[in-house]
Recover the amino acids of this structure.
C-alpha cells in the first residue's frame, strides 16, 4: 500500500513541476534564446570585421531582413544557401539563423536537425556549443528532458562559454521530469555563480522562489 502512495505522490510532484514549467517556460526560453542568438551574432560580426567578404555580409543581412519581415521560408532558404557556401564563420552563423527561421516557420524538427548538424561539425567551438544550447532551449518545450540532456550535458563544466546556460537547461530538464530537489540544487548553484550572466541568475532566483526555496 505504501508503494501506491509513493507513486501517487511522485505523480503529483511531476504534475506541479510541469504546471510551474508551463507558467514560466516560454518566458525563460524566449529570454535565453535571445541571449544566445545575440552572443552568436556578436561572434559572427567580429569575424566579419576581421576580414569576411562584404558579399557574404550582404547575403546574411538580406536573409535577416526577410526573417524580420516574417518571410520565414524565404529566410530559411537564404540562410541555408549561405550556410552551404559561405566561409567558416558566416556558414556557422547562417546555420544558427536558418534553424531560427525554421522554428518560426513551424518546422521545429528540421531546425533541430540543423542545430545537430552544426554541433557535430568542425565549426568553431563557440558555434557548435551555441547550436547545442539553442537546440536545448527549443527541446525543453518540444522534446523530452533526455533530449535536452543529450545536447548540453558536456557544456556545464566551469570555463565553458555556455556553462551557465547549460546548467539552466539541466535544471529545467530536472523540473520537466518532476525532480524538484535536483532542479533546486542546480538553480541554487547558478544563483551564486559569480560567472553566470545576470539574466540567468535572476531567472534562477525567480524559479527558486516559486519552488519555495
Amino acid at each position: 500500500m505504501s508503494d501506491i502512495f509513493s507513486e501517487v505522490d511522485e505523480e503529483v510532484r511531476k504534475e506541479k513541476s510541469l504546471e510551474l514549467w508551463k507558467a514560466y517556460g516560454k518566458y525563460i526560453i524566449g529570454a535565453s534564446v535571445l541571449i544566445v542568438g545575440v552572443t552568436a551574432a556578436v561572434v559572427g560580426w567580429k569575424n566579419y570585421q576581421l576580414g569576411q567578404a562584404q558579399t557574404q555580409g550582404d547575403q546574411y543581412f538580406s536573409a535577416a531582413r526577410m526573417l524580420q519581415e516574417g518571410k520565414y521560408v524565404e529566410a530559411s532558404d537564404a540562410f541555408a544557401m549561405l550556410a552551404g557556401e559561405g566561409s567558416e564563420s558566416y556558414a556557422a552563423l547562417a546555420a544558427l539563423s536558418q534553424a531560427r527561421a525554421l522554428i518560426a516557420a513551424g518546422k521545429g524538427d528540421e531546425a533541430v536537425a540543423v542545430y545537430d548538424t552544426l554541433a557535430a561539425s568542425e565549426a568553431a567551438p563557440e558555434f557548435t556549443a551555441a547550436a547545442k544550447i539553442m537546440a536545448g532551449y527549443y527541446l525543453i518545450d518540444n522534446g523530452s528532458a533526455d533530449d535536452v540532456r543529450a545536447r548540453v550535458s558536456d557544456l556545464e563544466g566551469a570555463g565553458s562559454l555556455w556553462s551557465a546556460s547549460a546548467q539552466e537547461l539541466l535544471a529545467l530538464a530536472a523540473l520537466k521530469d518532476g525532480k524538484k530537489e535536483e532542479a533546486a540544487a542546480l538553480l541554487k548553484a547558478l544563483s551564486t555563480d559569480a560567472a553566470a550572466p545576470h539574466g540567468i541568475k535572476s531567472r534562477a532566483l525567480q524559479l527558486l522562489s516559486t519552488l519555495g526555496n
Observations:
- Residues 15-211 form a domain with the Serine Threonine Protein Phosphatase 5, Tetratricopeptide repeat fold (CATH 1.25.40.10).
- The first helix runs from residue 2 to 49.
